[in-house]
Specification:
heterodimer, A: 3 helical TM bundles of succinate and fumarate reductases, two-stranded antiparallel sheet, B: about 130 residues, mainly alpha, 3 helical TM bundles of succinate and fumarate reductases, about 75% helix, globular
Chain lengths: ~130, ~130
Amino acid sequence: MARITRAGSSARPMTGGFELAVWYLMRLTALALFVLVLAHFTIVHLIYDPAVQRADWIAARWSGAGWRTVDGLMLAAVVFHAFMGMRTVVSDYTKGGTRMVLVMALYLLAFLIFAMGAMALITFPDATQVPS
Amino acid sequence: MLFRYRGSEGMLAWAFHRISGVAIWAFILLHVLDIWLANVNYKLYNDLLSLYGSPGGRVLETALGAAVLYHALNGVRIIVMDFWPAMTRYHKQLWYANWVLFTVVGLVFAIQIMAPAFGLQAPFSFGG
């Protein structure tokens, strides 16, 4: 049983090591995502309409290294935050072997999703090669 | 659970954070898949894109925005209390302040997203 403190609002692991690192990284990625995701949502849903964001729109947005870098940072942060969050949820409702299998499945899926996102970010063709 | 147990603000804030978090996680899976698809088969992606622009797609888009906005605001509230424990005393007030921000910011997004579903021009123009 992990020792916890109630000094803050949510249980901060007092055992140190991996769980404490995850606790801090959840908050660090949260702050990064507060900026990155809200900016992303504003651009993609308020300034532009997703209905017009065909493949050539994506190619134009990713025509330079700038947005690819920003979106790469967002991908890394969101995969960590979303899957570690799901790990907490799964761990709250399962135990023993079931928990271990589900958490391992989450880690595998996280790796797959990150790889697919990274593949799109790195190999997306130049705007001139995607017809509208 | 939400209706049987008369939860206080703290319990509801936690439940909404968890529900919105799982919903956003599910959308992340879909969103990485669709961008991956745009890369490997842009014609199929372009065909499927019409789903996002349909009236039903816009309702889901608004729901996604609500989930993201709530999760972001409540997440800041959690971090504030984690690193400034004295603020835990005002956790309800912080939660109500979040709802004020959520309503003001959310309405702007909701109107912009839903307008085309009613055949109206999107009200805000940013040269996009």
